[in-house]
Amino acid sequence: MIYNNENIKHVCVYLRLSRDEEGKGIDEVLKNHRETLIDLVKKNKWSYEVFEEVASSSTIEKREEMVKLIKRIEQYHFDAVVVMDIDRLSRNEFDQSDIKRLLFNTGTFIVTPYRLYDLRSDDDSLLLGITGLIASQEYKMILKRMQRGKMFAQKQGHWTNGKPPLAYDKDVKTKKLVPNKHAEDVRFIFNEVVGGTTIPAIVEQLKTMGVKTKEGKPFHYNAIVRLINNECYKGTLISNRGIGKNEGIKPKEEWIVINNCHEAIVDENVWEKANKIVNEYSFKAPRSKNRIYPTSNLIYCGQCGKLQGCNNHKRLGKIYIKVCKCGNRTFYYNPILKLIKEKVQTHKETILEAIQGIEEGSEEDNTEYKIKHLTKQIEKVQKALENINILFEEGEIDLLTYKERKAKRQTELKEIEKEIQEVHQNDVSVKKVGLQEQLKIIERLYDKWEILEGDGLTDEEINRMLHLLIEKIYWTYEKGSTEPTIKITYK
């Protein structure tokens, strides 16, 4: 189309796609749009510059080319913006207002293959507003349908989150994750963490063995942490977690958790233990800033329950347990450490007796029966949550009713999941495996725990192993007492 407007000399051609809307492939669609618009500006004998990107229309800030274009428009570089359709500028109603205001203030026209819009014309401004409103509503409906489709696919166990994580490929037919040859690398990392190896030590081991990340780079501390925190490795998919790309995380009660979606690489118990170790205890702080003692983050005041640390008196060359504000007194550290060592050694006999009791006992194991029925209950609650979402989206219930019903079902879901976890923990076979693991840790610990007598395990290594065995050590040394007392709570 030829536009007879003497005020237009130099224009910008803006091309944007967020998805394959025509089913021809994004590159092909962009090529067609580009040819159409450039042909248009050439027929009108305008000089032009091209701004092109593949990006969502959610916010302007996420669209680099649009940000550049806006800055150029603010400096009066262009007489008009040439686009395929008005909604190419934005379908976000808030961004539409900002763009419209900018074009009005700078006197910049909007040109499409079908019409020229002058924002300073009341008729054009009204038409543009109506067109933008329709585009905004259309975008919201498209987004709802896409989210609903994605959520449905995820509930079927399909992988919809882009590139699969390390050690997994996406099966083209089933659309589910399947382990690949790197699964043994992931299992090695989890087993080392559970076995008491520190993350820096694991990083060094992987470097020596030439094991690298999915991107072919050497592992580093944060890469290990992210891997341990990834639920995929225990066969679980989590959706509805993020607000938007890099925009934050929703509350956990709003997440959709789908268990047993695909083949797990590590056992759920191993995943939980490794996850707890990595998230509750960190070796990242340098020793110069935060010295690690054998009992760091383990000793608690027996009177008020507060965590108690140590003081290193460099001039005297002695270490003390800190005085608690509640009045719990201080004491030399090494005698207490020796006492803890003796008590943990005694605990070995308790573990052996418990294992023997399980092997000789006739306790009936109803784990499978309980899990089966609890899983059915979870499926019912998840179906109810899905129906609540549909009712709200279709306008059948108001926001207040939606929130109340959803909160009730989410609470119910949490209670069932907690019950399942307790059933797993009380499983006879799981108990036995857990006790055997504790036994191995104690044997490994006492094989080289010579920290008081000579060279052996470092304070850091002892601390990591004690954290695998002990929940808390309660310390009491009241005024008038001749010696302190300790009480150990084991895991």
From TrEMBL:
<dbReference type="GO" id="GO:0000150">
    <property type="term" value="F:DNA strand exchange activity"/>
</dbReference>
<protein>
    <submittedName>
        <fullName>Recombinase family protein</fullName>
    </submittedName>
</protein>
<feature type="coiled-coil region">
    <location>
        <begin position="371"/>
        <end position="426"/>
    </location>
</feature>
<dbReference type="InterPro" id="IPR011109">
    <property type="entry name" value="DNA_bind_recombinase_dom"/>
</dbReference>
<dbReference type="GO" id="GO:0003677">
    <property type="term" value="F:DNA binding"/>
</dbReference>
<dbReference type="Pfam" id="PF00239">
    <property type="entry name" value="Resolvase"/>
</dbReference>
<dbReference type="Pfam" id="PF07508">
    <property type="entry name" value="Recombinase"/>
</dbReference>
<dbReference type="InterPro" id="IPR050639">
    <property type="entry name" value="SSR_resolvase"/>
</dbReference>
<dbReference type="InterPro" id="IPR038109">
    <property type="entry name" value="DNA_bind_recomb_sf"/>
</dbReference>
<dbReference type="InterPro" id="IPR036162">
    <property type="entry name" value="Resolvase-like_N_sf"/>
</dbReference>
<dbReference type="InterPro" id="IPR006119">
    <property type="entry name" value="Resolv_N"/>
</dbReference>
<keyword id="KW-0175">Coiled coil</keyword>
